[in-house]
Write a structure and sequence with these properties.
- Helices cover 35% and strands 13% of the residues.
- By secondary structure, the chain is an alpha/beta fold.
- The longest helix is centred in the middle third of the chain and has 19 residues.
- Bound molecules: zinc ion.
């Protein structure tokens, strides 16, 4: 619903750019087809894709936060060090992409602890941020916030305040909030625009590839200019890789969501890097 006021040139405004570092065979939508034990048999493309992303960020003077799987960090420590050396923030995406609400609090705690220690060891930098696999902190798994705070995380970005069949907490705040008075942990949800009393996903993922880029730019500018809030954008390295091997046997819906417009993603990302000024989560929110 772009209006005339939204088409006026706007100064580039700050937002948090984030990358969920996982490979194409580790996504939740393909979990029914690909067991974790088989991950080792796949041809990894994350290193090559991160190479392109880091160059794109450098060309546009963008800094970002990389929420990284422990599994990936263990295998590609040189790329992880490059992320840190180039001035980006290294943060945790858990060890092997298990949704929070499918774990016991004890298992969740040991996964959080193991991944944070591993990333700090490789990156040589304190890890402050955490993003749950598939935005899987919701009403049922809100206990996870306490554990994240106890394990030394300063913020989480694990809530998408939308209605979606796989994730989402539509009742959650659209902007950064403290989930508990017991600690200082900050939750920073992915950006949405509220239209007709409904939160429309506006911060990346399949929607960013599916909808025209002009909608995304309008939505993000509206958040910055009308609501005076920083935007939070996310994407995955496999999204810029139209030549990735196709996973067989997944549902039509999962394949559509994963493969739609992969070939346009790099161009769209270059546009968003030029239209907005991007920084790390910790610098914007802590
Ligand atoms: Zn993920």
């Amino acid at each position: 619903m772009p209006s005339t006021t939204d088409t006026q040139p706007t100064p580039r405004s700050a937002g948090a750019m984030t990358v969920d570092v996982e490979d194409y065979f580790q996504v939740a939508a393909f979990a029914p087809q690909i067991a974790k034990e088989d991950w080792n048999r796949f041809d990894c493309r994350v290193e090559r894709n991160l190479d392109v992303i880091l160059s794109m960020f450098a060309e546009n003077g963008a800094k970002a936060t990389f929420f990284t799987l422990g599994w990936i960090a263990e295998r590609y420590p040189a790329t992880i060090r490059r992320i840190v050396l180039e001035g980006h923030e290294l943060a945790s995406h858990g060890y092997e992409h298990v949704k929070v609400h499918t774990q016991s609090p004890e298992n969740f705690r040991s996964d959080v602890r193991r991944t944070k220690a591993l990333l700090e060891d490789i990156g040589g930098q304190q890890v402050k941020g955490y993003r749950a696999a598939s935005f899987s902190i919701n009403e049922q798994s809100a206990w996870a916030f306490d554990i994240l705070a106890e394990e030394g995380h300063a913020y989480s970005s694990s809530v998408y305040p939308i209605k979606h069949d796989h994730y989402g907490m539509p009742s959650a705040s659209r902007f950064a909030y403290r989930p508990s008075e017991k600690h200082e942990l900050l939750e920073v949800p992915i950006s949405t625009v509220n239209l007709f009393n409904r939160n429309i996903p506006s911060g990346g993922g399949g929607y960013f590839r599916l909808l025209p880029y002009s909608f995304s730019r309008w939505a993000l500018r509206r958040i910055v200019n009308n609501e005076h809030q920083p935007v939070i954008f996310y994407f995955h390295p496999w999204e810029i890789d139209p030549h990735q091997p196709r996973v067989k046997g997944a549902s039509l819906r999962s394949r559509f969501r994963h493969y739609v417009n992969l070939g346009t993603m790099e161009r769209r990302l270059r546009a968003i890097l030029q239209d907005f000024r991007w920084d790390r989560m910790d610098r914007i929110f802590l």
